[in-house]
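Researcher: Sequence recovery benchmark, item below. Answer with residues only.
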């Protein structure tokens, strides 16, 4: 199965990439990695499917060379990856030469293959030693993250073409401290409000360190959903608006306008860190690009009697992925157009993640994944339409290069364009990988 687009349908400087994240692929039992909050979260019954963790994952720590070959041979331009904080600093504060050596080899390997490296500094692996001190709820996290940034950039920054500070602040803060779905698994509005702010303070401190070091092309990666009301009832419209505020407008508003959306801030104010207003200027300091992760739309319903935000997501009627996420490419178009209109103007945008967990039997063993091919095709089509309508989108990266550790879903959900057999660690390109390879070939 082939895509309906090729590279030639995009501007000549448009970049296609494949993305991964350290905890999801490397294997924390290889090299000297400190404990992270994901290890301990996963150890609690009920948090992760089959109580699986990142100890072995895809053994990318040993197989990175062959994995980078796959990115190159798929004709991608960019490899988006992350560094693991507890590998670089096993105790959260002291730099490990062994950890940095690994990323040094990896950076060389990416460049040697003619790929453009796009680094994400934080993709969710908070060191336990810092989690012990409150992690994202502690206002010192900005300093901790700045020091970690310095360590990574000081060693591999010279080879990075793009750097993002943080992946998906909504997941780091809200999903992890209010909804309890990700590490550290808290369900506490005060912890959540603090994390919602500190994650952006950490972004700002990290930016300052990188600017001072002369590092170029810096951004942050936000996730967006196309959130809609589940019915025509006015109270469902309110529910969708609140969700949109927490998920989409909080971070985009703070970064673009230096202000949190009033409707959400008024509910969180009693729990916000004292003097948070003083940080807003730094938080809204210039970035060079914004990363957009998009997967689905979501439908929201008011829940009478429930504490704020008094809403819940309900299933919609569209076809769904194996994760029960609705497939809605129009939502990606909508998010890209809205960002330009309401938030980021002409700031370059990269779709840094998009993809799906497959239901195809091929996802279990063989390599046929027509549903994933159709998903990518439709979403890349949405990007093309957004560009035609003036949105400044400069790249599109597939999530993910490999089947990998899908957080609370363990190894059960497979997002890879390359199949991983977790018994043997054999990699087998799927149809979607072949489709990219063909569409992206330079003739
Ligand atoms: C995103 C994460 C990524 C992966 C995909 C499916 O929220 O950034 O690590 O889990 O979802």
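Model:
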């Amino acid at each position: 199965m082939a895509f309906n687009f090729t590279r030639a349908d995009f501007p000549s400087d448009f970049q296609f990439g494949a993305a991964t994240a350290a905890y999801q692929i490397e294997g924390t039992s290889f090299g000297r990695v400190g404990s992270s909050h994901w290890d301990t979260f996963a150890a609690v019954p009920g948090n992760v499917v089959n109580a699986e963790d990142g100890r072995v994952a895809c053994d990318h720590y040993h197989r990175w060379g062959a994995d980078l070959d796959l990115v190159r041979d798929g004709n991608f331009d960019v490899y988006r990856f992350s560094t693991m904080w507890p590998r670089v600093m096993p105790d959260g504060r002291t730099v490990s030469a062994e950890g940095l050596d690994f990323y040094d080899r990896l950076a060389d390997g990416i460049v040697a293959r003619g790929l453009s490296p796009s680094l994400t500094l934080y993709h969710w692996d908070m060191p336990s030693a810092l989690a012990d001190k409150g992690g994202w709820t502690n206002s010192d996290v900005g300093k901790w993250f700045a020091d970690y940034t310095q360590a990574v950039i000081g060693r591999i920054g010279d080879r990075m073409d793009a750097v993002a500070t943080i992946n998906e602040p909504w997941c780091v803060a809200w999903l992890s401290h209010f909804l309890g779905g990700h590490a550290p698994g808290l369900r506490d509005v005060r912890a959540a409000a603090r994390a919602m702010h500190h994650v952006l303070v950490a972004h700002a401190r990290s930016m300052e360190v990188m600017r001072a070091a002369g590092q170029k092309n810096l951004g942050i990666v936000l996730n967006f959903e196309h959130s809609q009301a589940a019915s025509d009832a006015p109270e469902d419209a309110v529910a969708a608006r609140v969700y949109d505020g927490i998920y989409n407008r909080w971070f985009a508003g703070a970064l673009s306008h230096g202000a949190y959306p009033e409707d959400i801030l008024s509910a969180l104010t009693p729990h916000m860190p004292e003097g948070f207003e003083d940080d807003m200027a730094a938080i809204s300091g210039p970035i060079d690009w914004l990363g957009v992760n998009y997967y689905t739309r979501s439908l929201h319903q008011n829940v009478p009697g429930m504490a704020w935000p008094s809403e819940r997501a309900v299933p919609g009627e569209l076809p769904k992925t194996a994760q029960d996420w609705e497939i809605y490419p129009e939502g990606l178009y909508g998010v890209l157009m809205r960002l330009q209109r309401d938030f980021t103007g002409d700031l370059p945008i990269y779709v840094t993640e998009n993809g799906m967990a497959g239901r195809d039997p091929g996802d279990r063993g063989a390599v046929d994944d027509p549903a994933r091919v159709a998903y990518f095709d439709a979403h890349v089509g949405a990007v093309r339409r957004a560009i035609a309508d003036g949105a400044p989108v400069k790249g599109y990266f597939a999530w993910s290069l490999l089947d990998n550790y899908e957080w609370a879903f363990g190894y059960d959900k497979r997002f890879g364009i390359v199949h991983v057999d977790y018994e043997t660690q054999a990699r087998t390109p799927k149809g979607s990988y072949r489709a990219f390879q063909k569409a992206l070939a330079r003739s």
